[in-house]
Amino acid sequence: MSTTQANKIEIIKAPTTKINEVDFENLNFGSVFTDHLFECDFKNGEWQNPTIKPYAPFMMDPSSRVFHYGQAIFEGMKAYKDDNNDIWLFRPDENIKRFNSSAVRMAMPEVPEQLFTEGLNQLLKLDEAWIKKGLGNTLYIRPFMIATGFGVVANPSDEYKFMIILSPAKAYYSGEVKVLIAEHFSRAANGGIGAAKTAGNYAGQFYPTSLANKEGFQQVIWTDDATHTKLEEAGTMNVFFRINDTLVTAPTSERILDGVTRKSLIDMAKREGIAIEERSVLVSELIEGIKDGSLKEIFGAGTAAVVSPIKGFAYKEEYFELPKIEDSIALQLKEKLTNMQHKLTEDPFGWTVKI
Amino acid sequence: MSTTQANKIEIIKAPTTKINEVDFENLNFGSVFTDHLFECDFKNGEWQNPTIKPYAPFMMDPSSRVFHYGQAIFEGMKAYKDDNNDIWLFRPDENIKRFNSSAVRMAMPEVPEQLFTEGLNQLLKLDEAWIKKGLGNTLYIRPFMIATGFGVVANPSDEYKFMIILSPAKAYYSGEVKVLIAEHFSRAANGGIGAAKTAGNYAGQFYPTSLANKEGFQQVIWTDDATHTKLEEAGTMNVFFRINDTLVTAPTSERILDGVTRKSLIDMAKREGIAIEERSVLVSELIEGIKDGSLKEIFGAGTAAVVSPIKGFAYKEEYFELPKIEDSIALQLKEKLTNMQHKLTEDPFGWTVKI
Ligand SMILES: Cc1ncc(COP(=O)(O)O)c(C=O)c1O
Ligand SMILES: Cc1ncc(COP(=O)(O)O)c(C=O)c1O
To answer: Could you tell me which Gene3D superfamilies the record lists for this protein (chains A, B) (predicted)?
Structure first.
């Protein structure tokens, strides 16, 4: 692993701030960025020139590998501000670890943890005015790495750019979510790249998702590509099913993103004494569960969506709606999680990290 | 479909040429580019400002969708110059059609055929000095499209850039090629994006291919992801097997790129009276074929690699070498194909197109 120069981050400040142009009450997810970004380039086998500088476009060669062969990975994290104006991250070590596993799978260099952490923390401190207090206000953090080496030959780049950009985000409220269960299209192959947070996994979902959108479904729940009988995950969320009083969710595998929200909810449920099973869930179980009333809830879990209740699902042209529920486990877990993240309640797990 | 402005291509000429700096006898594939490129932007629902201009880096926003969600497709074609200095393409309509199917699968806008053709032809005429005469000299053509819209939200971009860049290429001679047959990793899922020429399909192969490289194999031959028993294709080539005097190759599917070289070789073989079957080929057939002597040849077929004989393969830790052969069908087809492409022999199929 290359030496980090984390303690030598060069900081070039923006002459003015854009913050006054931003309506923090009406934010479209991921569309407004803060004044600065963190950047570091990988060249000649090492990470070089870590820099914080004004958010701005940059030059890319038309033959850059990322455009042709898709070496590109990212992460999604959030920063929260508490009532004392302290800034908190939620399990950042998990994101850094996952970023580096994605890097390995995509034949890209790992980013040293110290470099990642220092770059992120210094950037957050500089742009801290963009993190608003109060439940529901967050700063979405997007670390990413792209292949910048030249040449249209299908092998790994020898140059990369690592960047962190920041976008203020309101709680992602998606209204009533109806999902389509995939019967033909797939997100990931056995032995493929489904467990990596890599760009190509997302573009591949856009077309099937647009077909679902046309039929009135906001998301697709992916199934295993060989039989389309096992439920896997949604486009940017892992998925939980509540059968009677037991939560079930697909086990992680090389086809599924190992979500930080997913694993946190599992641990929270265990602590609350809620029964939880990590096992393959069959589409047929859902349909039976609707018929006999045992299927009580379905919800997605992810950093952007937090916990997102699902109202109903379609499978093979039939639509199944979930019963209305009073004692929603989804909403209970969501409240506990967001309160913990915003430091409104105790964090018995040690997941929240002050920067 | 948007209106094309193909007849209004703006041309900005490079003040000088880089051609004298290039050693045309020693070219690394895909690393040297000609003086100009073609560019056209998709904005507000239409293709705008088609321009030929000097090859140069361009500005990209850090939040450009291609970096985060991988909407990126490309094609690979070649131009040839004959003894009369005429410039020829090989089945360009097939590449344009495939480019636009890739676009649909990746939720990107199609490029009108006339715009693609006009942009390419005018670019080739301007940089025609870069196409050298003689068998083995070609100009590799790389049309590509990337999502340039801003924002880190996982849905399709509304802005795109289409570009064509050109790179002089010698015949791709890869020496002796040994391949590893995939037992764990995969290239494509059922219902996935394997049939699209999209960036993410390539990055996903780099890590498994690097593992194969370390064991002395240049390429991986991918198998179906569910059972790893059926042979599919290699990283940038379709694959043919000669069993006794019959050629067999996997049928196209949504997991396999529908190669122009592959389909051309099939038609050429038919015309020559060579038996050819498009059917699933099992790994076990190859092993039996080695043992009983019926497996005579394996070769890859693709625009960059042309026809590339394979010397041997490994499967489950065992290496199988093919017998030496006198009357190679691979080399026979390769010669016929390249002679046709370079206009050294007749083209009975009408595949070669003068620009
Ligand atoms: C494909 C996919 N699954 C699941 C998740 C949820 O993961 P996490 O909880 O770590 O945000 C995400 C998004 O982040 C994702 O992109
Ligand atoms: C995955 C893949 N398969 C096959 C091929 C061969 O296709 P074609 O003969 O059209 O070049 C290519 C390359 O072009 C490819 O990228």
So the answer is: 3.30.470.10, D-amino Acid Aminotransferase, subunit A, domain 2
